[in-house]
Amino acid sequence: MSKKPNKTSRRPAPKAAKVPAKKAAAKRPRPMAAPKLEERIALALEAIAANMAAAAPKASNADSLASADAFIWHPDGRLAPVPKVSRVELDLLQGINQQVDTLIENTRRFATGLPANNALLWGARGMGKSSLVKAAHARINASKSVNGRLKLVEIHREDIESLPLLMAQIRASDFYFIVFCDDLSFDGNDASYKSLKAVLEGGIEGRPENVILYATSNRRHLLARDMIENERSTSINPGEAVEEKVSLSDRFGLWLGFHKCSQDEYLAMVRGYCSHFKVKIDDDQLQREALEWSTTRGSRSGRVAWQFVQELAGRLGVKLATK
After folding, report:
1. Reduced to 3 DSSP states, what percent helix, strand and coil does the chain have, rounded to the nearest 5?
2. How many CB atoms lie within 10 A of CB 188?
3. Helices (H) and strands (E) in the chain, counts
4. How far, rounded to the nearest angstrom, does the alpha carbon of residue 320 sit from its chain's CA centroid?
């Protein structure tokens, strides 16, 4: 009998296909390069700074406002405290007695919760407009009835459009605020005055009860004369065009005019500064030099008087120490 083929016999296994060495090497992942030492240090420092910022206690708005009497507003939402305000004492402001009394009374009423008006101080340059605002704030804030609850916040002319943001930030505060803009004026096609109009009067929210606005300007209507004349000559309805821009100054309830001082008032300012800072000099010589100084400057004002006293004190070796 013929033998059957053995079923358990195995066929030879097929040979594995050879992979080219170059392709196999290409499939291997390249090892990641270790970060440089400088990069590791930078990453570690960033992580430390982030942890410290998260762990640091954040000062409340009330605490930050209580840290100083005056602040400078930044349009990104910051109120930067001013450690020492550059100011002239109220008693040294000569020749503007009526303006001093009026603004002091208006500020006192506001800081004690009584009705008060926004104030526009306009007129001749160097006659103490901004000095009066800062001096009035210091005088009222130091009174027993106010006891430091009155804050002075300066906003720069170019940041007027951010005024609504400032109002929203301080509206709920327990402090009172004088928002102060020095040398406020508008030129050309500048439309930022509309933000100021809405805050002064006319907006839905209106001016917060704990905020008052004081502004200084060399212009009574905050606009250059040529702007007003241009609006009058080029508009279809000249009266309405001028009224739109002039109405801004009308929203300041209190107008205080500052005019050029006389020779006697100028000399009184000089003598007042010399007496206060104990600058000793013969009165005839003082008068002669002060008048000569004003002649070279071409004007007489409180600023010119102060500049002369600085020159005189420096020459005599006297320090002008202020509080």
Report:
1. 45, 10, 40
2. 8
3. 12, 7
4. 27
